[in-house]
Amino acid sequence: MGGEVPEPRRLSRALSFDGGGGVPEEALHLVFGYVDDPRDREAASLVCRRWHRIDALSRKHVTVGFCYAVEPARLLARFPRLESLALKGKPRAAMYGLIPEDWGAYAAPWLAQLAAPLECLKAIHLRRMTVTDEDVAVLVRARGHMLQVLKLDKCSDFSTDALRLIARSCRSLRTLFLEECIIDDKGSEWLHELAVNNSVLVTLNFYMTELKVEPSDLELLAKNCKSLLSLKISDCDLSDLIGFLQTSKALQEFAGGSFSEVGEYTKYEKYTLLTTEDHCQIIAKCPNLLVLEVRNVIGDRGLEVVADTCKKLRRLRIERGEDDPGQEEQGGVSQIGLTAVAVGCRELEYIAAYVSDITNGALESIGTFCKNLYDFRIVLLDQQKEITDLPLDNGVRALLRNCTKLRRFAFYLRPGGLSDVGLGYIGQYSGNIQYMLLGNVGESDNGLIQFAMGCTNLRKLELRSCCFSERALAVAVLQMPSLRYIWVQGYRASPTGQDLLLMARPFWNIEFAPPSPENVYRMMADGQPCVDNQAQVLAYYSLAGRRPDCPQWLVTLHPA
Description:
This is Coronatine-insensitive protein 1. By secondary structure, this protein is α/β, with parallel strands linked by helices.
């Protein structure tokens, strides 16, 4: 095809003559191959039946945002030639211990129904799902000979027996990702099997697991896998990995391990926990840094060095450090550091930070200088008694009004952090945002309704620790036409969740989790109710109907 390639969203107009009938089949397949965004794919598939069929046959990857939103059989019928599948299970709150282990999200039906029929499948990513050894066996029997990527991300219920089977059978595996999985450790033989049987592995990640491994097996892996570029491991004495590190000539990324308190390498033990000054010294030597992930011990001073040095920075993630007053004294991130980064690192696309203090001015600076932001997340910690500048109404308005590329937004504050006016601003200026997490925002039901009326494109919403009534939540859901999923914890719930039925509609599942009776009278030290005392609600669109595996403590709501 000569000339300029049409923009994806104009495909239907550019190629719709004769309903696409005038365009050769091969040409349409080639054009569809350049359309990667699933929303563009979806729009193109609606042009005519022919385009719908070509999309079905040429779609290589699908992400199922929630495992109960569709049945495996429907997915197979729609996309029979998938090469890659990502599947998400439990709500994100599971990462913070807010979702019981027996909640559901079982991988069994998906693997049983898809592993064999999807003959082109060579990559699978399961996130926050319950995966058993038998589930892994089903996958390996069907796809082990051609599986190249296996990501079990924050999954649970399987053991190292499953890993040993993977290591023996999946000899084409290039990526094995197990980060933050809960794995029953029955021995380290799995890693030895992997080292012996696999010569093409590129990425191995079992970071933040309890797996114990032999350093000699890692060294053997390095000898046999010349392609190994990335290794992230569980706790292991780094002094035992000298042989591995000397052998891994191609290694570009390494994480995990620690220095023990005994032996000749004791002198390095305290340097593995960087201070604010350590961060400053290291970062000052990294002018080409693109991604920075640190803990908040980096402090405002460290972020000022980042702002002066790292002009090409694209992603900044500042995790919460230990709840240690000493660390707060030497580090801690506030509006000072965020403002410096906003002014100095204008190519930023992603900011996620735990902060001790924040002001409207800092948010305005981010909105003024960081025009490329597509993902912004702030959590205001509760360690500091007084916050400089609340509510943050004007700051959030400036940020959202100027950062028009934002697609994901999280704003978790403290009581009083955002008034009803500020909540209305979020709705008014978040027209392009598709995912949002809000905590401790608003003052009344009116603020929630004003917010909802502006969220025309919001697809996924999570709310925590808010003052809204159950009835207001239901009314708000009806005001958001694109909403597909909402999870709420900590609101003014009715005893039975019946007010939630106001949001009932076809294909809309409502699940209510009342507080655990045995925990009703438990209180935290400050007199506030414990988190596990608070009711939860999950509501979502589903083509699969009510799920069959609800635990007994979960109440499914539907009109009589």
